[in-house]
UniProtKB/TrEMBL annotation:
This is Bulb-type lectin domain-containing protein. The lineage of its organism: Eukaryota, Viridiplantae, Streptophyta, Embryophyta, Tracheophyta. Residues 1-106 form the Bulb-type lectin domain. Keywords: Disulfide bond, Glycoprotein, Signal. The keyword Glycoprotein applies. InterPro entries: Bulb-type_lectin_dom, Bulb-type_lectin_dom_sf, S_locus_glycoprot_dom. It comes from Solanum pinnatisectum (tansyleaf nightshade). PROSITE patterns: BULB_LECTIN. Gene3D superfamilies: Bulb-type lectin domain (2.90.10.10).
C-alpha cells in the first residue's frame, strides 16, 4: 500500500478564508484521499508552512513567520532524530537507522484522525494510559474533530462503541473470537482479518491485510462507519 506524505495536502476553503492542512494521502488513488491530518485544529492561512524535526526529536509545523502551529511530543531524545513515512502510512519520528517500532519517539498511528489503516491499534495501552480512537471531521472541508468518536471499550467483555459527544449511540457487542455479537455480518474477509486483541498491557481493535488490496475504515461526520476497499 503506497501512501505519500505531501508538504501541503490541500488548500481547504470555507467561509472567506483559505485553510491549509498538512497530512497523508494515498499516492495511487486518483481521487485525493486524506487518511491523516497533523494540524487539524490549527490550519495554516497560507502555503508557506514547513514541517521539520528539531534536535529534541520533535516534529514541528511552522508557518510563514516561523511561528509554531503544531508539534508532536516525546519523553525521550535521540542523537540523530529523523521523520519517516512508512509504507503502512505511519509517520514516525525515530533515531536514524533504528527501525524497531518499540523505539519510535512518536508515530501518527497513535494519533489518528477519522481513518483506521491496516496495522493501527484502536484501543488502550494500560502501561502508558493512552487511548487511541477515531474522531470524525467537523464537515467535508474542515478536518477539526467533529461530533463522533469510535472507541474500543475494554470494560467487561471488550467491544467497539460509537459515541456522539459523551453519549454512546452504538455498541458492537462483545467480540467472541469470530465476530461481534451485535453485528453477525462482521466476519473476516478473504482480503483482511480483524478482531479485538487483549493482553495484560493492552486491548485494541485492528485489522491486517491478507492480500495487496488497499482498504481502510473511516468515520464520517455523520457518524457512519464505512469500509473502503
Amino acid at each position: 500500500m503506497a501512501i505519500k506524505l505531501l508538504h501541503i495536502v490541500e488548500a481547504l476553503k470555507w467561509g472567506s478564508s483559505v485553510q491549509v492542512i498538512q497530512g497523508i494521502w494515498y499516492k495511487n488513488i486518483s481521487v485525493r484521499t486524506v487518511v491523516w491530518v497533523a494540524n487539524r485544529e490549527a490550519p495554516l492561512t497560507s502555503e508557506s508552512g514547513i514541517l521539520k524535526v528539531i534536535e529534541q526529536g520533535i516534529l514541528v509545523l511552522l508557518n510563514g513567520t516561523n511561528s509554531l502551529v503544531w508539534s508532536t511530543n516525546t519523553s525521550r531524545s535521540v542523537q540523530n532524530p529523523v521523520a519517516q513515512l512508512l509504507d503502512s502510512g505511519n509517520l514516525v519520528v525515530k533515531q536514524a537507522g533504528d527501525d524497531n517500532s518499540g523505539n519510535f519517539l512518536w508515530q501518527s498511528f497513535d494519533h489518528p484522525s477519522d481513518t483506521l489503516l491496516p496495522g493501527m491499534k484502536l484501543g488502550w495501552n494500560f502501561v502508558t494510559g493512552r487511548e487511541v480512537y477515531l474522531s470524525s471531521w467537523k464537515n467535508e472541508e474542515d478536518p477539526a474533530p467533529g461530533d463522533y468518536t469510535y472507541h474500543c471499550d475494554p470494560s467487561g467483555y471488550p467491544q467497539n462503541i460509537l459515541k456522539k459527544g459523551s453519549d454512546v449511540v452504538y455498541r458492537s457487542g462483545p467480540w467472541n473470537g469470530l465476530h461481534f455479537s451485535g453485528a453477525i455480518s462482521s466476519r473476516d474477509s478473504p482480503l483482511y482479518t480483524f478482531g479485538i486483541f487483549s493482553s495484560k498491557t493492552e486491548v485494541y481493535f485492528g485489522f491486517n491485510l491478507t492480500s495487496s488490496v488497499i482498504t481502510r475504515l473511516t468515520l464520517s461526520q455523520n457518524g457512519a462507519l464505512q469500509r473502503w476497499t
